[in-house]
Amino acid sequence: MKNENTSKKFLLEFFKDSDIEDKEGVLTINNASEDFEKFIGKKSPYKFVFDIYTHNKINNSDLIMQGSYFLLAIRDYLENKGQTSLVKIQAIPSKSVLSKLKGERKFYEFSFITTYQYLNDKKQSLNKFFIKDEKILDIDVSKFKTHKGNKEDIKDFDPSEDYQIAKKKLHEKVSAEIKPIKSVLKKKLERELTRIKDHYAKQIKEKDDEVDSCVNKIKLLQSKLRHTSYERDRNIIMRLIRESHERLKMLKKRSYKERLKVEEEFHIKDEVEKHALSIKNTLINITAYYF
Description:
6-stranded mixed sheet; 2 domains
């Protein structure tokens, strides 16, 4: 359920400028941008569902789960889209919002896509920050009346300082988001490392016990040999002693402890790499709003 909510939130944010219907477990996207339709090679509407049962009932639906085609396509689209936009504000919804925008009549929106990868899983989240005069704005631009801006209207387009603020804010947000992920990964890694170490400790003990068994068997046979006078029995005992010596020699020659330790270290390194958390932040868009 948590993954479903995360994916659904991601889709709602990405298609927020489209006509969206959300009912009976089906998220329908109408009138997606032509740019995205060309990129993905499929025209809207898109019918997104989040469980196999609904997918089987709804014709032409796309099942959304981690790693599904549409989520990967959106990620690639966003990562390749990086651009700068200008938006002119025609009307501001309230005086309270206007008070937040006093002073210079321009602010920036920085949009990032953050990709988390761990345990063969990959997740993305969209993060947007509105910044004016190096301060974070808490506003909802979807309520503004706007139209496409003109680059001739802005002579001093320089988001560099505000961009540093946005990156710092993104770092804070990502750091908070990864805490529970890192905690889960740490516990899983500890369990796997314990399992590996126990396994190889058991393997080494078994080999140690086999060596001790060979040594004790040789001692016992040598004792029997000293107290045996019949030639046939002596030959049998001597053959058994030779076989035990060969087995002991083979065990020692293979250096089983060193070999098993190398294997253990390899598997430990492999598990550490599997449980590592990879984070990639990509700036996909800078929008300058002005009025």
